[in-house]
Amino acid sequence: MQMSKIVRLSADIMYPFVVIFGLYVIMHGHITPGGGFQGGAVVATGAALVIVAYAFRDVKAMIPKVLLYLQESGGLLLFIGAGLAGMLLGFPFFFNWLANSGSLFGMPVPIGPNPGELNTAGFLPVMNIAVGIEVWGGLSLVLLYMLSGVGKEGY
Amino acid sequence: MKRNLTILLLLVFAGILLALAAGFTYGTPLASDMDDYFIRFGQAQIATNNIVTTIVFDYRGFDTLGESTVLFTAVIGVSLMFRRFFGGEDDADE
């Protein structure tokens, strides 16, 4: 069972904007309020929009389940790997070895109020992206699974 | 009768809680050493404006690792429970 054409068209139009806003919240997690968990939840809302608007057997072809599994596992592995990578260089586990280093995300910030720079914060953006990917895949998978039983009888 | 008694008890309980909360003075926490440390050194050590993200992902990064693991475990549990709805047992990509 699927919704009317108006709902489906609205979901089609809204879906890219929801995803882009979620990615923005993930990417700017170290400057603005928000972060990986919140941005991932916003992107998963886009998946919920598609699942509500379309029939379940169409959604199954539209949103590949294997990709969501890979996202969830890969996000957690990236998170742990970013923490472990410091140990190879001689730092403690989860030490922020990219901060103030001058390389990727390694710019220092001035002390006190300042407008903010995207290329700062060491590995915090990496962690935000990892957690965002994981929450995106995980919550979409949970929604997909829980809504797959709607309309079925006998259980 | 019993319902009225329940409502009365709830009101008395809420009143006690509010009377206790009215005694607090806000804006002057008892222990603020940790907060002062984060606010003073967060920008210099981690190079981040957002102190909340600094605490969540760096000073308390191990806690966030646990949170991610909890989410991972929850998704595994949900997928185990709802597997029979998702195309049934004879699904090819299951």
How is this fold's topology laid out?
The complex is a heterodimer of chains A (155) and B (94).
Chain A: H1 5-27, H2 36-53, H3 56-62, H4 65-88, H5 124-147
Helix pairs in contact in A: 1-2, 2-5, 4-5
Chain B: H1 2-22, H2 33-46, H3 51-59, H4 61-81
Helix pairs in contact in B: 2-3, 3-4
Give an account of the 3D structure.
The complex is a heterodimer of chains A (155) and B (94). Chain A is an all-alpha fold and 155 residues long. Chain A has one domain (5-147). Chain A is built from 5 helices and no strands. Chain A has helices at residues 5-27, 36-53, 56-62, 65-88, 124-147. Chain A is elongated, with a radius of gyration of 19 Å. The model of chain A has no long low-confidence stretch (mean pLDDT 82). Chain B is an all-alpha fold. Chain B has one domain (2-81). Chain B contains 4 helices and no strands. In chain B, helix 2 (33-46) packs across helix 3 and helix 3 crosses helix 4 (61-81). Chain B is flat, with a radius of gyration of 25 Å. Chain B starts with a helix and ends in a 13-residue tail after the last helix. The A-B interface holds A 29-33, 35, 37, 60, 65-66, 72-73, 75-76, 79-80, 83, 93-94, 96, 99-100, 106-112, 114, 116, 120-122, 124, 127-128, 131, 134-135, 138, 141-142, 144-146, 148-149, 152, 155 and B 43-50, 52-54, 56-58, 61-62, 64-65, 67-69, 71-72, 74-75, 78-79, 82-87, 93.
List keywords for this structure.
heterodimer, A: 155 residues, mainly alpha, 62% helix, B: 94 residues
Largest sheet of chain A: none
Q: What is the H/E string of chain A?
A: HHHHH
Mean pLDDT value of chain A:
82
Structural class of chain B: mainly alpha
Helical coverage of chain A, percent range? 55-70%
Strand fraction of chain A equals under 5%
- Total separate domains of chain B: 1
Count the DSSP helices of chain B. Answer: 4
Note the total helix count of chain A.
5
Envelope shape of chain B: flat
SS elements, strand count of chain B: 0
Poorly predicted tracts of residues of chain A:
none
The residue-averaged pLDDT of chain B reads: 81
Distance linking N and C termini of chain B: 57 Å
Number of distinct beta strands of chain A? 0
pLDDT under 50 segments of chain B (min length 5)? none
The Cα radius of gyration of chain A reads 19 Å
Distance between the termini of chain A: 19 Å
